[in-house]
Amino acid sequence: MRHIISILLENEAGALSRVAGLFSARGYNIETLTVAPTEDASLSRMTIVTRGSDDVLEQITKQLNKLVDVVKVVDLSEAAHVERELMLIKVRATGKDREEMKRMADIFRGRIIDVTESTYVIELTGTSAKLDSFINALDAGLILETVRTGVSGIGRGDRILKV
Amino acid sequence: MGLAMMITGAEIVIRCLQEEKVEHVFGYPGGSVLHIYDELFKQDQIKHILVRHEQAAVHAADAYSRSSRKVGVALVTSGPGVTNAVTGIATAYMDSVPLIVLCGQVPTFYIGQDAFQECDTVGITRPCVKHNFLVKDVKDLAITLKKAFHIATTGRPGPVVVDIPKDITAEKCDFEYPKTVQMRSYNPVVKGHLGQIKKAVQLLAEAKRPVIYTGGGVILSDAADKLTQLARKLGFPVTNTLMGLGGFPATDKQNVGMLGMHGSYEANMTMHYADLILAVGARFDDRVIGNPQHFGKEPRKIIHVDIDPSSISKRVKVDVPIVGNVPDVLEEMLKLLDDGFRPDPAVADWWRQIEEWRARESLRYKQGQYIMPQYVVEKLYEVTGGDAFITSDVGQHQMFAAQYYKFDKPRRWINSGGLGTMGVGLPYAMGVCFANPDMPVACITGEGSIQMCIQELSTCKQFELPIKIINLNNGMLGMVRQWQEMFYSKRYSQSYVTSLPDFVKLAESYGHVGMKIERPEDVEPALRKAFTEHKNDLVFMDFIIDPTANVFPMVAAGKGLTEMILAEDL
Asked: What average pLDDT does chain A have?
């Protein structure tokens, strides 16, 4: 089962490596990991996408809570939540492909944010599945480069992760 | 307020230790910690114990904690000082021992430049500490040390490393030691959930085949008295893990002995066939329950009391988890069990079954022409009246010590259970001596393990530590040899120990007393002599034992708890 774990942790040097080290030491997998400071600069918010059975997830949550730098841990996927990932994708855009790329970006509600004579950079936001679909919809030979942020997630409505 | 109030980082370190009532620091000087050593020199409240290798400093500080309620402190220099200390830190971490390790570091402006004796201390120690800190500003030093002591000693205890760059120890700032510390990210639970405790008590009353299974958490949280009260009130059988020995008196009829890979027949059978397990400060690890699938086949209920939620339902599903400080939870249980507690009548039948298992006498061994290691431990128990502090190394001798020395009190049995670190025995004995002056201390070891920290015989001489080293010398790495005999068709690959020193002469060259004992009839007189005539000496007793002796019962790795190999089967 895929899970999205949200973590509030002290924004201190080494805090990220404690979390990453925990996952590698105990053999848990990380599909994506994103981290940045919150509106309170003393705290960072991390989102980790991982896979595992219920037992493994229970251990992951408990082990994360044991880390001294970790303030709060929530499994977002336990209830209603929104998740988004951002991708920047550089594609070849010449000849008839130039118009086609523009059309594809529009269909997926992406935005072209850099243009040269032969390339576009398209910015696309959505669930990871949507980004995958976009990649699959393009001619693989035209994709020059992709970069993805990994998933960020937030609970819906009154589900608030705060100190 | 003026410059006069400002003190250096090095002085702050010492003042903080004094505020924490630290009496002993085990350490070894070096470039990065010279300022701190200079401050140590100028005071006499804290006594520094100079070891001969940093690993021993941490082991000694570790045993200092284990054998008392004080906190062990080690002080090492940067680079190799730290890497040498890592084995000690990992050992303490696996057994949840509160410990402070202060490490020198190269100056902040050299960090990351591959400076002389630089290593990434925080990175190297991160997976084997409860927490670690790198101090980057002298103003953070006092609060960091306060946090270090707080974190090490509360919740599930553990070692905390504080990495202090040399320039920080030279810089000055105002000093005030914080009285308290608040950390929003660290708030260990103390009280157990009352609803859960009530559920547990209900199960205790209904149990027909109960067992109380207790581990190191009982010792670490000083819950032995409460556990003993509870066990006697319930009248249930008690089994201790290797780390839990002494949590409930070994000589009590209710104690069915240690369980696990080398547990007694009755302990393993009782654990396996119980319909209710009350687990207290124990973690169902692989050496205790054997194969978890085999263990899981038997239907039963489990109550698990532990301060660490991640220990609960890690290897075995638990029915009633209770997260809390063990003595607090046991106290609540005692309150709920009124004085008229009557166990289910079926418990009497259960005891009859247990007595049948006990009658197998699974710890019986045959005497021969050679000294049997079991016999040495039994005689040591008699000679010391069961009241000595016993440290051990790792291997067959460790299991013999655990099986045949009957620990009635907590904190008397000091060994590396989790990490299984050979070489701890002698430095452990040193730590015990400093925490418990004037108490008899014996180190049960083997000729393999003792050589891993043998240099500490020099420290023992310097501080005149009257340790009795019980060297069970079979010329073999006994536990390795036992596995090779049983599972590798007797291919004894590298399990012999050749070119051994003459331990008697070795002890004498360090200024200690050496004895070599080769005949069974000499065992007891030699021990008596060591503990009376040589009461104040370190005595290295080299017992030449039967090289074929094996540890039984044994649950082979991957086997179920009831699939024991007994001595009588062979």
From this structure: 96
Count of pairs with CB atoms under 8 A, one residue in A, one in B: 35
Radius of gyration of chain B (CA): 24
Contact B126 A66 (CB under 8 A): no
Q: Is residue B563 part of a domain?
A: no
Chain B contact present for A56, CB below 8 A: no
- The string of pLDDT tens digits covering residues B495-508 is 988 899 999 999 99
Assess B112–A contact: CB distance below 8 Å, yes or no. no
Please count the structural domains in chain B: 3
Kindly state whether residue B187 falls inside one of the protein's structural domains: no
CATH number at residue B543: 3.40.50.970
Structural domain of residue B125, as residue ranges? 5-175
pLDDT at position B1: 47
Residue B183 lies in a domain: no
By the CB < 8 Å criterion, does A58 face chain B? yes
User: What per-residue confidence (pLDDT) applies to B397?
Assistant: 98
Residues B319 and B385 in one domain: no
| Pairwise CA distance, residues B420 & B399, whole Å | 12
Q: What is the pTM of this model?
A: 0.96
Q: Could you report the predicted ipTM of this complex, rounded to two decimals?
A: 0.93
Per-residue tokens: B152: 């090490």
Q: Which residue in B126, B127, B185 is closest to A70 by CB distance?
A: B185
Q: Which of A159-163, B244-248, B258-262 bottoms out in mean pLDDT, i.e. has the lowest?
A: A159-163
Provide the Cα torsion B102, B106, B111, B117; round to 10°: -100
CB-based contact, A125 to chain B, within 8 Å = no
Residues in contact with A82: Cβ distance below 8 Å, sequence separation at least 6, in sequence order? A153, A154, A156
Find residues 127-156 of chain A whose CB sits inside 8 Å of chain B: none
Residue B427 is predicted with a pLDDT of 98
- Token pair in block for residue B9: 């980082």
B467 plus B324 within the same structural domain: no
Tell whether B474 and B514 lie within a shared domain. yes
Kindly state whether residues B93 and B201 are assigned to the same domain: no
Closest Cα in chain B, distance from residue A58 (Å) = 8
Same domain flag for B167 and B243: no
Beta partners for residue B104, in sequence order:
B164
B310/A contact by beta carbon, under 8 A: yes
Take residue B200 and report the two structure tokens written for it. Answer: 């547990």
Question: Which of A16, A24, A57, A68 to substitute to test the interface with B, most B CBs within 10 Å?
Answer: A68
From the list A2, A7, A128, A151, the residue with the least C-alpha distance to A66 is A7
Distance from CA of A9 to the nearest CA of B (A): 8
Single residue among B358, B388, B417 that ends a domain in this structure: B358
Whether residue B550 is predicted with pLDDT greater than 70 in this model: the reply is yes
Residues B143 and B107 in one domain: yes
Residues B204 and B58 in one domain: no
- Nearest Cα neighbor of B63 from B390, B531, B402, B397 is B390
Q: How crowded is the C-beta side of B120, counted as CA atoms within 13 Å? A: 8
Of residues B217, B194, B476, the one with CA closest to residue B335: B194
* Chain B residue numbers touching A18 (CB-CB < 8 A): 126
pLDDT tens, residue by residue, B281-302: 999 999 999 999 999 999 999 9
Please determine, for residue B339, whether its predicted confidence score (pLDDT) is greater than 90: no
